[in-house]
Amino acid sequence: MEFLRKPLPLFKFSCVLSIGTMLLFNIPFFNYVADNIDETLGGKIFLLASLVVVMLALNFFATYLIMFLTRKVGRVLLAILSVINATAVYFIITYGVMMNATTLENVFNTRYSEASGFFSVSLFLFVFAFGVLPALYCLLRPVDFGKVKKMAICCLSALGIIIVTGLLNVKHTLWIGQHDTELGGLLQPWSYIANTFRIVSSNYDTKVEEIKLPDGEISDSSKTVVVLVIGESARKNNFQLYGYQRETNPLLSKQDGLKVFQATSCATYTTAGTKAILEPQNSSDLYELLPNYAFRMGADVSWRTSNWGEPPIHIDEYITDPELAEKYPGEDNTYDNILLTHLRERIESSTKNKVLIVLHTSTSHGPKYADKYPKEFEFFTPVAESVEEGEKNVGMLVNAYDNTIRYTDFLLDSIINTLRSMTEWNRSMIFISDHGESLGENNIFMHGLPMQLAPKCQYEIPFLVWTSENFRNYKSDEELPEVLEQHFIFHSVLNLLSIKSPAYNQDFDIFKNM
Asked: What pTM did the predictor assign?
């Protein structure tokens, strides 16, 4: 092993890492190019060869510069990137995701309890073989860093090669522009590096104070309660209420007065989808959200959650599932039924006439759908214990997912029955999902693809509404769009709570004028 102890010139070290990065972590990138470029065989080979050259030169340039300027710090950085690269490629290959801003937003907003569901022997073996071993090479291989002059020549030469190769491929600029999202999401390590900076920049922008909506007022004193249930990863396709052939809604299908709407989400991940449900209009800006606004206008607002990723909620009562279990000793917070604990008592104890309860569930969140419901709800069997297992048998994965929908059916039916018995109140239950879910269609699993690439199952969502008799009248089908947006929630709830406000938009209300 004498050759491993002899210092390797930085030029050769950079070449080794550049070639290794391309071969170990970027095969999905080249597969995508080969499958999607509409060229003759010669043109396809030329583009692929050009991308190989550019990738090698770019990685060489970055490695050489980082190592020369930062030495030991550079070694550690390259080792960390190696492990992250391997992890990213594993998820790209296994789940069909891309390392774009949407995926990384999901990563940053995922709790350990959910992230641990992705842990598996195959993941650890893959990361060890393709990430840890190369990382050890980066950390332990002796390197001769050479002189500044050689560094300048090598780095400038690499940049020159990139520029010349780019100029030779000007005709492919349009194609690259059309596929930049996919290419950028598959290019390691640049995909997650660039998109992490984008997210950090975006999060910094959203920390500004939310834009206050104009003041309104509660226009009557009738006792009214609205229970808004925000579903997680619930897709319309698997609801019996929407024509699914399986019995996933045995209880809700028998509920009188339940209204079913066609709807789509504004995004395919929780953070953006939840924001869209709570905001008055589709915007990259942060407007005052529904619970914050209703609370400021004088309603009693409670947020109960087993989930995360929502925009800032500014109310007096924000309570998580462990806090509910602590508040009500003996209650199990393993499943979302904890969110319904003492719900009637909470509503009836209010000192105000207008009550808004928001339940932010996690019932259909992957990758371990089978862990999201009590075993007595395991109606469809056998089940896959995780998405990774479900890849080998999609039918078992669908069974586990459909059981989460049956559990959702139970939860919503329980809420409606509770409200139905509270005859002194005007009552309404609204259920809408933050986004949908992929269950193996086109070998895609879970959610998070950019909207322009996402299949319909990731954004076609259930939108269910129940109201007590003689409370509010629905608009006719002719008065509503064929497919509703998530923003209908904000304005419809203002109507239900009798909050008159300049922020209210009748066009985005499922009900007739209050």
From this structure: 0.75
